[in-house]
Design a protein that fits this description.
The protein is mainly alpha-helical and 199 residues long. It is built from seven helices and four strands; from the N terminus they run ααββααββααα. Helix 2 runs antiparallel to helix 3.
Length: 199
Amino acid sequence: MPLPPLTLPPIRPLRELLLLLLPSRPAARRPDVSAKRVVDLLGATALLGLFAVPLLAVGALLYATQGGRVLVRQPAAGLAGRPFRTWRLHTDAAGRLGAAVRLGAAVRRCALDGMPQLLNVLRGEMSLVGPRPEARTDRADRLLVRPGMTGLWQVSARSDLPWEEMALLDRHYVESHWLGMDLAILAQTPRAACRHRHA
């Protein structure tokens, strides 16, 4: 008497059973492809290309007058509290000659000291627009977005905002930011930097 044909279970339920039994791999971290991140990458790349020569020239002058390191790294808390270090030009010429002091002051007035933070933007640690980078914070809302090179606090009509008002502007940005707001802040930043320079 012939044996009945062997029937196999459907492939899909079997595959789902194997997936349940086998240990799952950790989910791969997906790249951030949001519109804000795209603007950050394009903007940071363009600005680095635009300011590459001036930054190299200023770096050479700082090295010649200060005789030491040109870049410094400062601790900061990033998105979700992840620690990182921001890049800045070293303009602290305490104890140096008058030429070094004047050069450092000029670099800060032209807002060139923070331009190396474009590297942090490319690395995904910062954004072009966001709250001020701080080493630590007791306000959890600031950790919901990346810190920025510029923000509402910088384009405000006043350059001497008290800490409390700056904190309110940061909170407002975190709660209501969108791409249009970022573009408006970026458009106002050069004028704000010029106003601060001539203040």
